[in-house]
Design goal:
A hairpin with a 2-residue loop joins strand 1 (29-34) and strand 2. This protein has helices at 6-22, 46-49, 56-68, 86-94, 136-156; strands at residues 29-34, 37-43, 76-82, 99-104, 129-132. A five-stranded mixed β-sheet has the order 2-1-3-4-5. Helix 1 runs parallel beside helix 5 (136-156). By secondary structure, it is α/β, with parallel strands linked by helices. It contains five helices and five strands, in the order αββααβαββα.
Length: 157
Amino acid sequence: MLERDHNFYMQEVLKESAKALEKGEVPVGAVAVHQGRIIARAHNQKELLKDPTAHAEMIAITQAASAVDNWRLREVDFYVTIEPCLMCAGALVQARVRRIIFGATDIKAGGCGSIFNLVNDSRLNHQIEIVSGIMESECRAILREFFQTKRFSNTEN
């Protein structure tokens, strides 16, 4: 199977992020990769589904488990725009994913090293390898665009 580099998959994450941005969602995207093949793609859908758990990672976990026909995702890597929050980090631990690769750190809600390091807590039954900073400037840019637009529209009202 062709082994692609992190930038290839992060480009796919950014496409998902752009879909979220177009829908007025916080532009977070995720893709799950198994044996070099993308098996899940998702973006935030909290507003659309009116569901606080409808983060890109949560949706992608469900898709990935279906694709491999197993809730244990030991050979699956997750690529995400921004560092997963505690909820998503916990779900990724529960899913036993192999690796999380993200672009931007999240100093307000990060569960993979910024605030907490849930995914590497030795008290849990599974730890996850973390790779951060992949296409960080592009990931930060799409998030910045969303929040600047939100702030601007709030000042107009």
